[in-house]
Design goal:
- The protein has 2 domains: about 150 residues, UbiA prenyltransferase (Tetracycline Repressor, domain 2, Orthogonal Bundle); about 120 residues, Four Helix Bundle (Hemerythrin (Met), subunit A), CATH 1.20.120.1780.
- It is built from 12 helices and no strands.
- The longest helix is centred in the last third of the chain and has 25 residues.
Length: about 270
């Protein structure tokens, strides 16, 4: 059962939930081929988590020794086999569905590999990549019909997913600073310090609040106003926890709060 945590099942569930609701809300007649895109996205994302843990063996031995899967439960060669298997299954499905899907999955897989191997050790670049892929995953099932009709709600969820994911990724770099420093990573908190990195988090919260106000201006609707108010209050709560975060445990809680914020954004698709 512990082996399942290697795939970050909650994160994968959020991907499935988000893409399912997006397809339901924005695809004409709930277009049937969208689920192939969601299945393959989930497989490639799971493979990304596996390769990330393979390259993070030394870092995880410091940051989360009791939760380490690769080498402790799953030998590295078996982890590589699992990584290739997940990608190959996704590619085979995509090959029989749509060539554009196959091409995009290959690119995403290469980006995730680059992130795990090199980019996550650099300041902000890896964080921005993960945030971009999170936002891109929002519209991914819509590409099953190769037509994306933009509206204010879809724009909101893409930008919201990008900002929340970027916030969470930066929080995780603070949380994992001990292991990252030992592995000679050059993440943002290692380069500029925890205090300055917190100001980056405050800036992201301000950007999110500003975007909420802009979205509220675009949607003159009481239900949307109530929904945005809840998100605004949650962002203020996030600010409070960011200010008082001082150790690994508190940053871990802050990371979970940002994941709850993402879930709150997903719930908005039901409005």
């Amino acid at each position: 059962m512990k082996l399942l945590t290697l795939f970050r099942p909650i994160n994968l569930l959020l991907i499935v939930l988000t893409q399912s609701l997006i397809a339901f809300r924005f695809l004409p007649n709930f277009y049937t081929n969208w689920y192939y895109w969601t299945i393959t996205t989930t497989l490639v994302a799971a493979a990304g988590y596996v390769i990330n843990d393979i390259f993070d063996v030394a870092i995880d031995a410091i940051n989360k020794p009791t939760k380490q899967i690769v080498t402790v439960i799953l030998p590295v060669p078996k982890a590589y086999q699992l990584y290739f298997l997940l990608n190959i299954v996704a590619f085979i499905i995509a090959f029989f569905v749509q060539y554009s899907l196959l091409l995009e999955l290959v690119v995403i897989s290469l980006l995730l590999y680059s992130y795990a191997r090199w980019l996550k050790k650099m300041p902000l670049i890896g964080n921005l990549l993960v945030a971009f892929l999170s936002a891109y995953s929002v519209i991914f099932p819509l590409k099953s019909i190769e037509i994306i009709i933009w509206n204010n709600q879809l724009e909101f969820f893409c930008v919201f997913a990008f900002l929340v994911s970027l916030f969470r990724e930066i929080v995780k770099t603070i949380e994992d600073i001990e292991g990252d420093r030992a592995a000679h990573c050059k993440t943002l908190p290692i380069l500029v310090g925890e205090k300055t990195t917190k100001f980056v988090l405050y800036f992201l919260i301000i950007v999110m609040l500003s975007f909420l106000l802009y979205s509220l201006y675009q949607n003159h609707n009481f239900v949307f106003a109530f929904y945005y108010a809840i998100i605004g209050l949650f962002l203020l709560l996030l600010t409070y926890f960011t200010y008082y975060a001082q150790n690994k445990s508190s940053y871990h809680q802050l990371s979970h709060l940002s994941k709850l914020l993402m879930l709150l954004g997903i719930i908005g698709l039901l409005i």
